[in-house]
Amino acid sequence: MKGFGIWMLIALFGAAVLTAVFLGGADTDPRLAPGFTLPSLDGVDVSLAEYRGRVVILDFWATWCKPCTKTFPELHMLQQEYADRGVVLLVVSLDRSDQRARDHLVENGFATDNVLWGPLEETRAVKELFGVVGIPRTFLIDRAGTIRYSGHPTRLTSEEIEPWL
Questions:
Q1: SS3 category, 73
Q2: Distance of CA 31 to CAs 124, 128, 140, Å?
Q3: pLDDT tens digits for 15-28?
Q4: What residue spans define the domains of the chain?
Q5: Long-range contacts at 118-121 (CB < 8 A, ≥ 24 apart)
Q6: What's the Cα-to-Cα distance from 78 to each of 12, 101, 139, 148, rounded to whole Å?
Q7: Which of 30, 108, 124 is nearest to 71 (CA)?
Q8: N or C: more exposed end of the chain, with fewer CB within 10 A?
Q9: Could you tell me the pTM of the whole model?
Q10: Apex CA 94: angle with CA 89 and CA 96, to 5°?
């Protein structure tokens, strides 16, 4: 019975860690967003630096990730709500195939010009720059390039965005 308590403690700790990683509480420690360049699904090189002066919602996503496909429409609606105030959405696809990502987006009525996809090594490098360990993971980057939100996309709300407009 004594060993049961230790295993229960380990299980609870593990569950807490997994919840924090995958559901992602908001990380609000501001830091400068690392720079990167990846091609869009439309074949145009996109650099995060090009968006300095605008508020960027940066989402790490993949078609094989069910939570990602559920939150993707919500992020689009949130971005559209603030588009006239300079908010843009950039999505880094972690799919192994650009065609798979493109097909999913087109089938569901989403644009492909803001979805970035590169060879696995390149997209993994960007993922690591941002410290992403699980997806979906979303960042809000202010006009000066500082990360103001890092967490699960469903927790990015108007209240998180408004102060940076």
A1: helix
A2: 20, 15, 11
A3: 433 444 444 445 56
A4: 26-164
A5: 118/38, 118/39, 120/96
A6: 34, 21, 13, 16
A7: 108
A8: N
A9: 0.83
A10: 135
Q: Are 57 and 153 in contact (CB under 8 A)?
A: no
| Short-list 106, 116, 108, CA closest to 51 | 116
For domain 26-164, which architecture applies? Answer: 3-Layer(aba) Sandwich (3.40)
Angstrom distances, CA of residue 5 to CA of 16, 18, 37, 111:
17, 20, 49, 51
For the purposes of burial, counting CB atoms within 10 Å of the CB of 38, is it exposed (0-12), middle (13-18) or buried (19 or more)?
buried
Give the integer Cα–Cα distance in Å for 70 and 25.
18
For residue 62, give both structure tokens: 């993949």
Each residue's pLDDT tens digit, 76-95: 999 999 999 999 999 999 99
One-letter amino acid of 38: L
